[in-house]
Specification:
single chain; alpha/beta; four-stranded antiparallel sheet; globular; binds 5'-O-[hydroxy(phenylacetyl)phosphoryl]adenosine
Length: 443
């Protein structure tokens, strides 16, 4: 555990964030009962409760959460558009959403109280990651249905900092704004930060003309090695925060000054970690699928949402920051992102970690899965750092071998390594799509 803070340790809602565990757990129990009571107004849960013989007033301990049904992404589609909204339409104050694979968004609704609590939850991780009222923040998340833009906007407003709601895209304008308005804080996806970093470093921009000190990234998986690359490239500190639209968006967990994982806002959320096959809880400290139950959401009382995200919840005592909440690891992959290659389970994040160990490799890569003959094959297209590009076949072969060794060490698989010139792979303004599975296209 890190015992030295990276920045000054501060709180937004000290008493809630540092509540003694017994008090926190009794608050959770009370709020869980209320959440179940709200959920029991929905036909979806009424049916589930009836099927399993569960009585909504039978929650006696926190362990009773395991008697509640799971909620899946597909349940939102099956109850489209607003089957999970539990309040009269007049009480809904906000709709946000998440782009669905079917073309229809998954809607998430908020009451005024939900929007108000959401702002505080975002303020918590922003302040723990260095945001101060005197700062100016450039929000380069898309503003619109995506919960990132308005969620962070409300949190920053609550802290009292100045906001530049520039939204995503148009990197030249983003960089000009950084130079002209001199924000100290940047908010975006880690992949958009990579694109901005590239443009800053390759555009002969004087670093002193940019005042950035901190960035808050979320919305997609990224690795510790990617953090190191961005921090050293831009000379800033980057913080991780986590959430999903179905449970309210960002503000569910975020890092503190000690960066010992992300603190889960446990007075508003209960986290479980399950084995996605058996649906049983994993042993403490083991990785598994994260299941989230929001405790205080009024408009959409979702129970035991199976996120498909794979991570670990640490229960190893208090963090030196003073918060009493449990912490979560980075997201290591998603059950639906896992590639099964010749019987081996591989997550894109394992490949990213291996690549980032190699100095010759830039942070831009693309993973392509194909089945050229009978066997699956992964090709990793990687942009090289310009200074390592060489005319010597031997040197290039050496680089390929180093990458192969790192990937084999991380995954147990050999992959086809395709080194490409700088600036040839796709860049992303929001969430990245770095895996192309060509196997599906053939059927
Ligand atoms: O991405 C909410 C959000 C916005 C969180 C901005 C943080 C910052 P969705 O669009 O519903 O909501 O996508 C949720 O994104 O289940 C994860 O798979 C992934 N995700 C979000 N944050 C992280 C993170 C928002 N810090 C899905 N690390 C989640 C890894 C993340 N994955």
């Amino acid at each position: 555990m890190n015992t030295v803070p990276v920045i000054e340790n501060r709180f937004w809602q000290h008493d809630a964030e540092c509540m003694p565990r017994p008090q926190l757990e009794s608050l959770q129990l009370q709020r869980l009962r209320e959440a179940v009571a709200r959920a029991s107004a929905l036909p979806f849960y009424q049916k589930k409760f009836k099927e399993s013989g569960f009585s909504p007033d039978s929650i006696k301990t926190l362990d009773d959460i395991r008697r509640l049904p799971f909620t899946l992404k597909a349940d939102f589609r099956d109850n489209y558009p607003l089957g999970f909204v539990a309040v009269p339409r007049s009480e809904v104050s906000r709709f946000q959403g998440t782009s669905g694979t079917t073309g229809k968004p998954t809607w998430t609704a908020y009451t005024r109280g939900d929007v108000d609590r959401w702002a505080d939850l975002c303020a918590r991780f922003l302040v723990s990651g260095g945001l101060r009222p005197e700062h100016t923040v450039q929000i380069s998340f898309g503003f619109g249905l995506f919960t990132g833009g308005f969620g962070l906007h409300n949190g920053i407003q609550r802290v009292g900092a100045a906001i530049i709601p520039i939204s995503s895209g148009n990197s030249a304008r983003q960089i000009m704004t950084m130079q002209d308005l001199r924000p100290e804080v940047l908010i975006c996806t880690p992949s958009y930060a990579l694109k901005l970093m590239d443009d800053i470093l390759s555009g002969n921009i004087d670093r002193a003309s940019i005042a950035l000190e901190h960035a808050h990234f979320g919305g997609e998986p990224w690795t510790e090695s990617m953090r190191e690359r961005i921090e050293s490239g831009l000379g800033i500190r980057c913080w991780n925060n986590y959430g999903m639209a179905e449970c309210g968006g960002p503000g569910i967990a975020g890092e503190c000054a000690y960066r010992n994982g992300m603190h889960i806002q446990e007075d508003h959320y209960i986290f479980e970690v399950i084995d996605p096959d058996t649906l049983e809880p994993v042993k403490p400290g083991e990785k598994g699928e994260i299941v989230v139950t929001p405790l205080t959401r009024e408009a959409m009382p979702v129970l035991r949402y199976r996120t498909r995200d794979i991570g670990i919840v640490y229960d190893d005592g208090e963090c030196p920051c003073g918060r009493t909440t449990r912490r979560m690891s980075r997201i290591m992959g998603r059950t639906d992102d896992m590639l099964i290659i010749r019987g081996v389970n591989v997550f894109p994040s394992q490949i990213e970690s291996a690549l980032m160990q190699c100095k010759a490799v830039s942070p831009h890569y693309m993973i392509e899965v194909s089945r050229p003959k009978a066997l699956d094959e992964i090709t990793v297209h990687i942009e090289m750092e310009p200074s390592f590009f060489s005319d010597s076949m031997r040197e290039m072969q050496q680089i390929r071998e180093n990458i192969d060794r790192a990937i084999y060490g991380a995954t147990g698989l050999h992959m086809v390594i395709n080194l490409v010139s700088p600036n040839t792979l796709e860049r992303f303004e929001g969430k990245s799509k770095r895996v192309k599975d060509l196997r599906n296209l053939k059927f």
